[in-house]
Amino acid sequence: xxxxxxxxxxxxxxxxxxxxxxxxxxxxxxxxxxxxxxxxxxxxxxxxxxxxxxxxxxxxxxxxxxxxxxxxxxxxxxxxxxxxxxxxxxxxxxxxxxxxxxxxxxxxxxxxxxxxx
Length: 117
Known about the structure:
globular, single chain, 45% helix
């Protein structure tokens, strides 16, 4: 089993539980160069809000999209966009990534900006 398959296997259990509860989900994906966050509806079919380091307005504020500072910015941005859509509480889906470093920074910044999970 390679690294990606192991990560997706870890993510499967969390996603199944969130789907069973039918709650709004904050999903995080990271690569070496960028970090992405999306808020999905309770049914899991509609994206309510999204933010990533690929966006032009975000790229102007940061020099590198693959560090903790960029993750904090994305966490703050996704919380603001989710609240604008009327979402106050979400389930955190870390997509099988360790809750450490950039993933943790994004989650903490989203919490500080008013998102509950």
